Amino acid sequence: MADTITHPAQEVDEKLWKGGKSPFKISYGKLMMWYFLLSDAFTFAGFLIAYGSLRASMPTWPVPDFVFSTFPGGLHDKPLLFVTVMTFILLASSYTMVRAVQEGHRENKKGVIFWMILTIIGGLGFLGSQAWEWTTLIGEEHVTVTTNPFSAHTESGVYLEGDGHTINEGDTFIAGDPYLIHKHHGEWHQLSYKVTEGDDAGLVKQQNFGPRAFGALFFFITGFHGFHVLSGVIFLLIICVNVATGLYVERKNGYEMVEKIGLYWHFVDLVWVFVFLVFYLI
Amino acid sequence: MGHSYDKSKKIALKTILILGAITIFEVLFALTGKGHLFGGKLMMPGIAIALMMIVLSATKAYLIIYEFMHMKYEVPALVRTVLLPTILLVWAVIAFFYEGNDWQKRRDLIIQKNKEQVQKRDLDQNSDQSGMVKEIKNEDLIQG
């Protein structure tokens, strides 16, 4: 017995990795959830890096506060308002998830169910908002995976015709001003304009379509995130039902499943922080 | 963990309020910087807005990972195995942005080169004197 009382730190070090207890003081399931989330972070980062490098390589790019400026109820020119609402829905559902985990720690079954249902409602609210956003982009503004009518001017000029919406004949613009090419009865209306400054001054040109990759990047990245939210909602539902049937009361590790889905749910919120950053804020 | 139930509840509420406040600030800052608020009087260069947004988003990420996901209360070895690999991502972001910028520079160079006009010389005279193979004139090229 005298040998074992040598050095406290050394003793801990030796015993930590000899089996019998968890060196990370965490269960196998939670540790694997962390590593899954790490690998998922790499997948999302791959997408976002592709987006960033393509955007940096283009002379022009759709302006976010022009592209995302519609709001339900026929409102226009409300830059970033709708996506801010979406962000708040997801943030709020993250808070309700934390509360569900905390109720799980004190084995309060009713509390867990209450806060999990709120989280599910939040997730569904976010998915509904995203569906609306996609519907507007595809149905009204005609953005597809391969066509992008949103762009911004690279030179100053004056319009030679109007679009019947916001642009009138004779309106001037400068480099960086955004525009949307409208589609009526299946036909694109690319407005012609006269360049007023620079090397090409005096030339008459037509509005060009924006960078082709925009639609594909937007739909794939937000779609992949939305698919994560959808999977999260499904797993939340399954676990919520399990909580209600009292399955976890009998388990040795209690409400650990709630903690695991909690980790996943916060990760989805975390990814949205970065999607929000690169697609909408910058 | 590590806290009583009431303390944890308070921390969670405080964290969500900070996250919400940062989000509102981010949106207002971006809109002001891009000239949508205050009559466009407080516009900022894109790089300043981008840096501010990145710093604020990193703060949000920290709060979500450390408080909501409880990373703050895990043992250091676990924190390291999860967070250190993400340094690779930071490097990848820097490398690809650099590369993307280079693509744009090259594109600009090609556009510039396409616009360059070559001065015409009297080619017939030169070829007669030197006895070299007759050079092809621009007009010949256009006619095929």
Tell me what the structure shows.
The complex is a heterodimer of chains A (282) and B (144). Chain A contains seven helices and eight strands. Chain A folds into two domains: 182 residues, Four Helix Bundle (Hemerythrin (Met), subunit A) (Up-down Bundle), CATH 1.20.120; 56 residues, no CATH class. Helices cover 56% and strands 9% of the residues of chain A. Chain A is an alpha+beta fold and 282 residues long. Chain A is elongated. Chain B has two domains: 74 residues; 31 residues. The mean pLDDT of chain B is 84. Chains A and B meet through helix 2, helix 4 and helix 7 of A and helix 1, helix 2, helix 3 and helix 4 of B.
Short recap of the structure:
Chain A has 282 residues and is an alpha+beta fold. Chain A has helices spanning 8-16, 28-57, 64-67, 81-105, 109-140, 213-244, 256-281; strands at residues 150-152, 157-159, 172-173, 178-180, 182-184, 187-189, 192-195, 204-206. Chain A has a four-stranded antiparallel beta sheet, with no helix packed on it. A two-stranded antiparallel ribbon of chain A has the order 1-4. In chain A, strands 5-6 form a two-stranded antiparallel sheet.
Low-confidence stretches of chain A: 1-6
- Percent helix among the residues of chain A? 55-70%
Strand order of the largest sheet of chain A: 3-2-7-8
Helix and strand string of chain B, N-terminal first?
A: HHHHHH
Order of helices and strands of chain A: HHHHHEEEEEEEEHH
- The beta-strand count of chain B equals 0
Number of domains of chain A: 2
**For this structure, what is the CATH class of the largest domain in chain A?**
Mainly Alpha
* Main sheet: strands, sense, barrel of chain B: none
Tell me the quaternary state: heterodimer
What's the total number of strands of chain A?
A: 8
Radius of gyration of chain A: 26 Å
> What number of structural domains do the residues of chain B give?
2
Q: Of all protein chain pairs, which has the greatest interface, and how many residues does each chain bring to it? A: A-B, 51 and 50 residues
CATH topology name of the largest domain in chain A, in short, is Four Helix Bundle (Hemerythrin (Met), subunit A)
The span between the termini of chain A is 64 Å
Helix content of chain B: over 70%
Q: How large is the share of residues in beta strands of chain B? A: under 5%
Uncertain runs of chain B with pLDDT below 50, 5 residues or more? none
Q: For the residues shown, what is the average pLDDT of chain B?
A: 84
CATH superfamily heading of the largest domain in chain A = Cytochrome c oxidase, subunit III, four-helix bundle
